[in-house]
Description:
heterodimer, A: 2 domains, about 75% helix, B: alpha/beta
Amino acid sequence: MNNAVMNLSVFQLSIAYVFVLIMLIIFKSRGIKREKQILIASTRMTIQLTIMGYVLMFVFNNPSWWLTSFMIIIMISFAIYNSIKRVKIQMSKELKRIIAFSMTFGALLTAAFFIIVVLSVRPWFNPQYFIPISGMIVGNSMTGIALGANKLCSDFEDKRIEIENSLMLGASPLEATRKIVNNAFDSAILPTMNNMLTMGIVSLPGMMTGQILSGTFPITAIKYQIGIMLAILGSTAVSTVLFVTLGYRTFFTKDSRLK
Amino acid sequence: MFEIRNIKFKNILDIKFLNIDKPITCVVGPSGSGKTTLLRMLNRLNVPDEGLILYNNKDISKIDTMLLRRNVVMLGQTPVIYSSNIEDNLQIGLEFSKKLPASKSRMKEILERVELNKKLTDGCGNLSGGEKQRLCLARVMLMDADTYLLDEPSAALDKDTEQFIIDNFSKFVLENNKELIMITHSEQIAQKYNNSIVRIENGEVVKSYYE
C-alpha cells in the first residue's frame, strides 16, 4: 500500500478548471444565462476552500480547546443561518430560535459523544478529528432541519382546515398535528436513510474516499465511515426530533388556538 | 347555555348582549357579517378582544379549551375526511375527545341515520362532497356532545344536501336533548326552525327573537 499522498501541484489543479470551461461553453451555446453564476460559484468555492485550508493549517499547528470551540461555534452559527435561509415559508421568531437550539444541542451532543466516547480522541479538542467530524455532523443536521422545517411549515399552511377541524372535535394541539409532525420528521431523516441504503454500492462516501486516497487502509476507512454514518443518523434524528416536537407548539396559542 | 356580553373583535363583531338558550338557534345574516366569527368564538377558535362569553354561566376563558370543545363540538363549513376508512373517520372524534370507542352496531346505526350507505371498512377516497359532509355529521353525532355548532354546510353542497344535513341534525338534537346553534343563509331553513333566530348585520346583532 502506498502511504505517501501524491501531492497535487497548482498547475495540475488548474487543469481541472477545464470542466468549468466546458460547462460555460455548453451553457453559452444553448443560450442558458447562467455564466455569471457558474463563475461566481467556482470562484467562491476556490476562495473559500483555500482560506479554509490555511485556517485549518493554523488550527492544526496551534491545537487548543478554545480554537477548536471557536471553529465549532462559527460552523454551527453558519449552519443555523443557512438552514433558516433554506426554508421558503416565513417563520416566526420563536420557530427560528427553536431551529438554533435544536441544531446546537442535537449536533453538539452527538459530535461530542462520537468523538470523545466512540473514537476516544485525546485530547478531546484535537482539531484534526474534532473539526472535520463535527463539520460533517453539523452539515447533515442542517440539511435535516431545513427539510423538516420546510415540510412542517408548508403542512401547517396547507392543512390548516384539517388541524382546526381536529381542534373543533376536542383534540389537543399534539393530537391534531401528530401526523404533520411525524411527516416533517420523516422527510428530514429520509435522505440520510436512503443514503445509507446505497452506500458502498452506488457511492463511496467522501470521507472514506479521502482517507483511502491519503493512504489509509480501506478497512480502517470503512470503519470510520460506518461510525460517522451512525453519528450522522443520530444527530439528524436528535436535532430534528427536538425541532419538530418543540416547533409545532409555536403554531398554537397557550389556549390551543391556531395562530 | 351561551350568554354574550359586550364582545368586540377587530372590526368584525360588536355585540352588546346576546342570550342563546333554545334547543335550536339559527344565526342568519348576509355574508361577511360576522356569523362564522361568532360561532368560532363559542368554540374558542377565536377570542374576543374584549367582553365576556359565558357557557352554562361559566366564563369560557376560564374553562380548559379542550374540555370546552369536547362539550361544544363544532362542525365546520368544509367537511374534513382523515385518511383511512369510514370506521376510523367515525372513531376519530371520540378518540380526540377522549371518549370510549363506539361499537360496530352503534356506528352502523348512525350511518343509517345520516343515510350514508357505506360499509365501515370502505375507504373514503371516492366519497362525494355530500357524502363527506354526512360522514362528518355522523362523526359528531357519535361524540354525544351537549352543544353543537354547525357552520353553514352549504358551501360545497347542493340545496337538497344542505336541507338534509340540517333536518337530520335538528331531529337528532331534539330527540337527544342537545342544543344546536347553526349558521344558515337560507331564510326558509331559519323559518322552519324558528325556535330562535339571531340576525347579524355588520357585526352587530340586529334582531334576536323567539317565535
